Amino acid sequence: MTAQEILEKYDTLAKSAGDGEAEHFLAEQCTGYDEAAPEDLTGRAALYNELGGFYCAAGSYEKSETSFNKAKELLDGSAELRCSDSRAAVLENLGSLYRLTGQYDRALEQFNAVKEIYDEVEVPHELYAACISNIGQVYLDAGQAEEAEEFFRGALAIAQTEPADELMMGTSLGGMASARLLRGDAAGAAELLRRAGAHFNVLGGQYTEAGEYFITTADELEGIGNEGA
Predict the structure, then answer these.
(1) What is the pLDDT of residues 171-211, one digit of tens each?
(2) What structural domains does the chain harbor?
(3) C-alpha closest to that of 157 among 145, 149, 171, 169
(4) Are 3 and 50 in contact (CB under 8 A)?
(5) What is the pTM of this model?
(6) Helix and strand tally (H, E) in the chain?
(7) How far apart, in whole angstroms, are the C-alpha atoms of residue 153 and residue 175?
(8) Rounded CA gap, 189 and 14, in Å?
(9) In percent, how much of the chain has pLDDT > 70?
(10) 78 in helix, strand or coil?
(11) Which of 20, 70, 209, 215 is paired with 121 by a 20 to 30 Å CA distance?
């Protein structure tokens, strides 16, 4: 089987047979594919990246880090792949893992490495905006509101490039609102939340609930401000 066929079978197992069987299959295939196709660095990395994602979702963070780092090691060994979408995806997953586990400096290192790749390789602007937003989110989690707002504002500017990305615009504005609130600016946060909610409402469907939540939260923040006036 090719790496893509292995991933397709894994996806089928995950949906039908449960996590235990899917994990066993994918872990075995990672080792087997290393031996069967040592030259396919991208395919091998994709398998380890998927395994890392499985472990992360299961809360097995050490195993997840080991798998992601194996994928990164494979791609780092090729000058051609060091600036590839595949490597960016692995670094993004590592960054998300480190953010999840509160390792903010390490998370920033990974997301900044993704940004370096995107600075070199042309990618859809929504991907670049998401990368900048991820950096902002790490700063927000770390309690660094000014830095967070700066990156969310940068993500918003990129997302506004035609064709505009409503989802990332709403997400960036929501992040800016959280940064404002962290700085004690409830009125500023409420204004940004209303703008964020409007973008989610434009998207409709599954995003309507998020849009309503942002607007309701804005109402609550304005109510608190009026009580204190």
Answers:
(1) 999 999 999 999 999 999 999 999 999 999 999 999 999 99
(2) 129-222 (1.25.40.10)
(3) 169
(4) no
(5) 0.91
(6) 11, 0
(7) 9
(8) 41
(9) 98
(10) coil
(11) 70
